[in-house]
Amino acid sequence: MKTAKLVIGIISMVLSVFVLFQSCAAGMANTLSSNGQLGGTGGIFVAICLMIAGIIGVATRNSVKNGGALTAAGFCLAGALIGGVMAGDYSDLYIWSFIAWAFGAVYLVDGFYCETGRLNLKVWMLVLALIILPPVGIVLLWIDRPFKLSSRIVTTVIAAVAIMVMATNIMGGDGTSNSSQASASESSQNDQVSPTSVNADSSNASEKTYGLGENWTVDGALSLTFTAAAVTADRNQFDESNPAQVVILTYDYDNLGIDNEYMDLYISSSNFKVIDSAGVMADTYPATTEYPQETPVGAKCVGAQQAYGLTNPGGVITVQVEIYGNGMEKHEAVFELPVS
Question: Whose CB among 40, 67, 78, 108 lies 3.0–4.6 Å from 73's, allowing a Cys bridge?
Fold first, then answer.
């Protein structure tokens, strides 16, 4: 186990640096988009846990006592738990959390391993592991073999069912998100409103479709108006996407009450999904535009712009808007804008 602890410790320390930088980037993206995700913060915790566990594992690899191995296992398993819970849309964090769990399992086995080739585990320790971390409990169950074969099989099946239930719950959350997006897309095709100012809260915003110059207002949160969807001849010589048409969206927004501790209201391309007249998703384009501004409560940003490259020129483009307010409450609206 000495060689395994040395190798795992070195890998943990090297991997922690990569995870740290990636998580900082993910956290910055979450902050700018105000999407309420905490994957970046979770990734930083995972990186710190991997670094500490790696240092302890390398430093105590020759120790005859099990304190170092158990401490390293604790940090790895804590990092795996935090990463799995906080990952959200940061999909790579699930991979780093699994690796941390695997390393923790190795340290845990080493910590309890004794010269007889068995683990010095009490039954309550094994039961606790099966309840808190079923995968770890299953591994320990078959290594230590405290029960008869039939009992081990039944216990393994029960733990496996628990793992599948937890995975199903996580996937169910994603399904809810997808259904919300489908509802917003359907409303953008079927609903129309007259060119007047309309107030709407987050519960019914997706039931209306707004046009150019119409004001979408969420009471106590924000208001947003698209004032132009204009074609531009501006092209970036370094961009290779070669869109059929570049359209610049111009918009104004008010902060009516969103008070975020990380940054003031900032509505940008990360809050928009743009679909051209033929139903093809449009990408942002590096044209010359006026950048949006962080806007505190009671202030207004006027003339912010975002440029998009369209595969199919002209017609009416659809803009799906998604903004997170106080308490991570999600506000959604759909705009249909004629290209001029």
Answer: 108
